[in-house]
Amino acid sequence: MALLMEKGSEPQTESERDDLDAIAALKQNTAIELKDKGNEYVKMGKKHFADAIDCYTGAINRQALSDSDTSLLFSNRVHVNLLLGNYRRALTDAEYSIKLCSINVKALCRASKACFALNLLPESTLHCQNGLKHDPSNEELKKLLRQIESKKMEHEQREAQVSKAISEAKDLVSTIEKNCPPFSWDQEHDYTREAVELYYEVGSGVVHLVGGIAGLWGALIEGPCIGRFDHEGRSVAMRGHSGTLVVLGTFLLWFGWYGFNAGSFLNILKAYGESGSYYGQWSAIGRTAVTTTMARCSAALTTLFGKRLLSGHWNLTDVCNGLLGGWVLMGCNKLAEKLKYDDPLEAALLHGGCGSWGIIFTALMGGGGKLLAAHLVQIVGFVSLTMGTLFFLLHKLKLLRISSEEEMAGMDVTSHGGLAYVYTDECNDPAMVKPGFAVSRTGPPSSAV
Question: Does the keyword Flavoprotein apply (predicted)?
């Protein structure tokens, strides 16, 4: 009869009251069984933790137990979530458990553990202290409180280190500000903020020239690839791989320059002249981005038409390389051919050539001969001494170059199990080849084998 009663209505007969009591007892027994079953699943190990959570959830949803017993169910589910690493869910359940029974020490302890795992140290401390109020002799809570204090000390020490580093960085920046006193060792005031920024903004010396000189020594010591020059010393073009990937890589590199060049300013929100001026570092950043775009475009166009005049055809790969260095790279390439210098990565030609021009041009525009000489000695001399020695030792130990047989076959075959690129052989019928537009397979002459 109780099943036919409307929701919210009160039982009218003794039979209805008995039915309701029976239903409540059945729910209570089921909830207790689910709780015990969940405890058994926990004892069975991690594989059964999900089943344990389902059992505790089912017992809670029965809504048949007292607040204190339901608080224990939530606390048990907290325990499983902690074992699974679900710290946020564990904390939510722990808060429900504490809300139902504020003296549930297990819930307070597990809430403290969840907060500790989530790095919520103040909340973790509070739950620990509340638990110790109700159970002063609880060793687990005491141990947890010591762990919290230890972690707080670690955080304070880390914050102190970060604060010190930030303070030192600010001091360094202020040292090279325009109105600050000069360095004690800079008697002639050559190293002002403007000189330092002008010289190092694009890293011509400390980045490009360093890499270029290192590459120069590596290529000189190892010598050219087999077949790079014919028996008369003429340059032989090596077949490329993928024009599509070359163009994609070029545009990715170009996109990165806007972050590198325009993002090299120490302070963006700084006005030139009086505060509130229309011009500032922000306008310089805009000009830098525009200059980056125009320089790359002009270099690419210079290479495009320059190579067309020199070789008689358009060359996609040369344009992608040329937009990095323009006529400087073209000139270095010509010099390398004359000297029979083979640089597969064009490290010395591109980075060394353009880096050298960067510091030379800076000196011509006001940097001074002394600054130029100092950096040439420091960069060229130091890098030559270190990298030249390193490459020489690696060459003597035969650690830099593969055997001539592997070089002729190609490392795709000898080291990687197959050809990475499939080429189509050219047509051998002279009648099918248009004069001036034939592209033949390049490779070493038979005498070079």
Answer: no
Token output for 373 = 């000489």
Identify each DSSP E strand in 292-348 by its residue range. none
* CA neighbor of 439 nearest in space, from 246, 243, 239, 304: 239
Using the structure block, give the residue that is written with the tokens 């189509």.
Answer: 424
pTM check: above 0.70: no
Angle separating helix axes 14-43 and 49-62, nearest 10 degrees: 160
The mean per-residue pLDDT over the stretch 226-239 comes to 79
Please state which architecture CATH assigns to domain 14-156. Alpha Horseshoe (1.25)
Q: Do residues 236 and 228 lie in contact, with contact meaning Cβ atoms separated by under 8 Å? A: yes
For residues 421 and 428, is the Cβ–Cβ distance under 8 A? no
Domain ranges across the chain: 14-156, 193-448
Q: Is the confidence at residue 418, as pLDDT, over 80?
A: no
CA distances from residue 373 to 74, 355, 358, 378, 437 in whole angstroms, order as listed: 75, 14, 14, 8, 48
For residue 138, give Cα distances in angstroms to 98, 195, 220. Answer: 17, 66, 74
The count of other CB atoms within 10 Å of the CB of residue 187 is 8
How large is the C-alpha radius of gyration of the chain? 38
Instruction: State the DSSP code for 428.
Output: -
Which pLDDT score, from 0 to 100, does residue 424 have? Answer: 55
Q: Which residues contact 140 (CB under 8 A, 6 or more apart)?
A: 109
Using alpha carbons, list the distances in angstroms from residue 419 to 356, 422, 424: 38, 7, 13
Query: With contact defined as beta carbons under 8 Å apart, do 383 and 205 qualify?
Result: no
Place of tokens 């699943």: 41
* Distance, CA of 384 to CA of 221 (rounded, Å): 12
Whether residue 222 contacts residue 391, with contact meaning beta carbons closer than 8 Å, is answered with yes
